[in-house]
Structures are given as C-alpha cells and as structure tokens.
Specification:
By secondary structure, this protein is an alpha/beta fold. It has three domains: 95 residues, Tetrapyrrole methylase, N-terminal domain (Cobalt-precorrin-4 Transmethylase, domain 1, 3-Layer(aba) Sandwich); 97 residues, Methyltransferase, Cobalt-precorrin-4 Transmethylase, Domain 2 (2-Layer Sandwich), CATH 3.30.950.10; 174 residues, Rossmann fold, CATH 3.40.50. It is 27% helix and 25% strand. The protein contains 13 helices and 19 strands. The strands form four sheets. The chain has a seven-stranded mixed sheet, sandwiched between helices. Helix 12 links the parallel strand 14 and strand 15. Helix 12 packs parallel to helix 13. The chain is elongated, with a radius of gyration of 26 Å. Bound molecules: S-adenosylmethionine. S-adenosylmethionine binds next to strand 10. Pathway: Cofactor biosynthesis; adenosylcobalamin biosynthesis. It comes from Saccharopolyspora taberi. Keywords: Cobalamin biosynthesis, Methyltransferase, S-adenosyl-L-methionine, Transferase. This is Bifunctional cobalt-precorrin-7 (C(5))-methyltransferase/cobalt-precorrin-6B (C(15))-methyltransferase.
C-alpha cells in the first residue's frame, strides 16, 4: 500500500495530485474535501475518528494506492504525524498552511510568530502564551476559538485578526479587540492572530517562533537591573530560589502579589510566563511598569490591595506572595495554583503560612536563605557582606499537566 497526503488550501490542488488521485483505490478526507475532489472510481471514507481510516489503509494490498486529504500543510499540526505514529509512510503534496494564508492576508512576516494548537480544547495554555508574547497564531479548536480567546484576553492590550474559511467561498479576515471577539459568532474553520502591537515591525531574528528562552542575560538578575525604592526588592539569590519553585514557563500564568517593583513578575515574564503584578502603592506601580518596559516584557498590573484585588483575576499556575498579611496567603492558597511561594521576613508568620498552605492541600517545604556576597575591601582584600535573611515557604500540589 502506498499513501499520498494532499493538502487543500482553497486554490488548485498541488502539482502531482491528478496522478495520485487517478491511481487511488481509496480516498480519505473530510466530507467537504471528498465532495470537491474525490474521483468517482475510488472508494470514499469520510473522517470522523481516524481509526477507521487506519483500518481501511491497512486492509489495502501492497500495490494499491490511497489518497488522504487534509487542510493546508498536512505536515504542520496535521495528519502526517498521525499516520507516521501508526507506522504508515506517506508522500506529501502540501498546500499553503492556514497560518501562511492568514499572515499573507495580514501582510506581515511570521518568523517571530509562535503557533499554538490547543490540546484537547484546553484554552488555558494558549491564552497564557497570547498574554505573554507579542505575536501568536492559535489554530482554533472546539472550546478554543476566537470568542473564547477574546474573553480570556480582556484586561490585556491585544488585537485579534481572525481568518475564517481562508481560501474558501466564505473567506473573511476581521480585526477586532478582545471584547468584540468575545461578543461575536465566528464561522469555522478559522485561525486567530493575536498581536500586542499590530503595527510593530518585528526585529530580525534567527530562531522561528520568537526568541528562545531563557534570555541571553540569564535570570535571577542583579537588583541594579530594576528600579526600586531603598533596596525594597527581593534579592537576586532569593529570587533565584523562588523562580525555581515557581517554575514559570510558556503556557503558564504567574501572579506576583505585593509585587513592589515587580522583579519577580518581570523575571517570570522573561522566562515566557504570562504575569500579573498585584500592587496597591501607586509609586510602586509606576516603578513596576517601568521595570517591565525596561526588560521588554508584558506584565499586566492589577492595581489594588489583595485579597480584594485578586478576585477577578484569571486562575494562576503559580503565585509568589512578596507582601500582604495572613488573609492574602489564605486567599492565594485557595486560588487554584499548582505552586505557591511566600517570602517572609518575619519568623512569627512561618507557622501560620505553612498551615494555610497545608490546609489547602499543598505539600509544603521551607528554607531560610541568608546569602553573603563577595565584596572587595578598600585594600583589595576579599570579604563577605550579608544580605537580609528571608524565609521562603513553598507549597506544591499536582497540577492538571503533571
Ligand atoms: C489540525 S490544524 C491543521 C493545520 C493545517 N495543517 C494547516 O497547515 O493549516 C487545523 C487548524 O487549521 C484551521 N483551518 C483549516 N483550514 C482553514 C481555513 N480554510 N481557514 C481558516 N482556518 C483553517 C482550523 O480551524 C484549525 O485551527
């Protein structure tokens, strides 16, 4: 048995398709593709679930030929991977991918664009990538279309460009803000381009999908890398341990509660997570906005006092509590995160913090960190200068994806 996969993009079929179809005994594809392109002489099998197609392919004899229709480039989030996974080798005649088509309609280069295919309709990770990165295409799926993306992106400054039925008779390309995307009904199939700055020209890069992580200058940055008030920020050493416990990464959302100058929120964003900084002091809010801009990352600011300010925020994967009382820790322990890290200067709060996390179902660990930094005395001799000791209490419980 031999198999040719033909990609359909609304234009003429790719070169070589006529020959492949003329010799096909079996043709597999979506109803609309079969109606438009399947030859009379071949047996048709409509998709649906893929297993019947695999069975029908396996039943063909050695010299029989089959064609599988798929959308766009079947090698990109498509059927080629599924066939190979089941041991079926195939030739591929690709069409233009829906991502290529949308980017062409938008008249924008796309080497910097991250492409997300939500797994099992789970929109959470896709939303967090759109919240964190400046340019993302989402291959929409059931429960993860333009309306759901729009509703999850309210509160972030984003523009959505929706491509419906690209290359087809009902093609439409529409630019909307998240609120408008959430209100509308959208025709399928569609793909969504999500941009932070619709008119920005991306920097020339060497790596498709956006800069790789972690950033060139590393992480757990020195305090001098942030604007701060009188040294009131998490030290680099404590931040290093806190970041390791928070595990920020693309697809996750981190809250930095009592964010101060926002060093933790900024570092999480630099490591690819979506970040929300919760802060009540106006001057600190200005500082943290400056720090996010200085590091070229998007940090959403929720200005106000926790726990009230936490109420309307989307569910986080990780929470760093750098400020606030026992009521803030309790609220964070019940916010649905997989990881919670609380930094404490006051020892009398260690027990209550541990208990609040434990009572909410977390496995709790704690460490006191007191680093002494190497400094040089006036005569050039090496000496050590202690930083303020901090206790980190960390709670971890199994998340959806672990
Ligand atoms: C499983 S992925 C396959 C992607 C495909 N291999 C490609 O290169 O475009 C299916 C995604 O493509 C989108 N899609 C397929 N055909 C489309 C079209 N004509 N217009 C807009 N989106 C399309 C679907 O909505 C979905 O988000």
């Amino acid at each position: 048995m031999s198999v040719t996969v033909i990609g359909i993009d609304g234009g003429p079929l790719p070169e070589g398709s006529a020959e492949a179809l003329a010799s096909a005994r079996l043709v597999v594809g979506a109803r609309r593709h079969l109606d438009a392109h399947a030859p009379e002489h071949a047996r048709r099998l409509e998709l649906g679930p893929f297993q019947p197609a695999l069975n029908a392919l396996a039943a063909l004899s050695g010299d029989e030929h089959a064609v599988v229709f798929a959308s766009g480039d079947p090698g990109f989030f498509g059927v080629v991977r599924t066939l190979r996974e089941h041991g079926v080798r195939c030739g591929v005649l690709p069409g233009a991918s829906s991502v290529q088509q949308l980017m062409a309609r938008a008249g924008r280069s796309w080497d910097d664009v991250a492409v997300i295919s939500p797994q099992g309709g789970d929109i959470g990770a896709a939303l967090n990538v759109c919240r964190a990165r400046p340019a993302v295409v989402v291959l929409s799926a059931r429960g993860a279309g333009p309306a759901q993306l729009g509703s999850g992106l309210e509160g972030w400054r984003r523009t959505l460009i929706v491509g419906e039925d690209l290359g087809g008779p009902n093609e439409a390309v529409t630019t909307v803000d998240p609120a408008e995307a959430a209100r509308r009904t959208w025709r399928e199939p569609n793909v969504v381009l999500c941009l932070a700055e619709p008119d920005a020209v991306p920097r020339r890069s060497w790596f498709a999908g956006g800069e790789p992580l972690p950033p060139e200058s590393g992480w757990a940055l020195h305090e001098d890398e942030f604007s701060h008030r009188d040294g009131m920020l998490t030290s680099s050493e404590v931040r290093a341990v806190a970041l390791a416990k928070l595990a920020p990464r693309p697809g996750t959302l981190v809250w930095d509660v009592g964010a101060g100058s926002g060093s933790v929120a900024v570092e999480c964003a630099r490591l690819g997570a979506a970040s929300i900084a919760v802060e009540s002091d106006e001057a600190q809010v200005v500082r943290l906005i400056t720090n996010a801009a200085g590091h070229g990352v998007d940090v959403r600011v929720a200005e106000g006092a926790a726990p009230q300010a936490l109420r309307e925020l989307p569910r986080p994967d990780s929470i760093f509590v750098g400020g606030g009382g026992a009521d803030v820790v309790t609220a964070c322990a019940h916010a649905g995160a997989t990881r919670v890290v609380v930094a404490l200067a006051a020892l009398d709060r260690v027990g209550t913090t541990r208990d609040a996390l434990r009572n909410a179902g977390y496995e709790v660990s704690g460490v006191q960190l007191s680093a002494s930094r190497l400094v040089e005395l006036e005569d050039g001799a090496a000496s050590l200068k202690p930083t303020d000791p901090v206790v980190l209490i960390s709670g971890h419980r199994k998340g959806e994806h672990e």
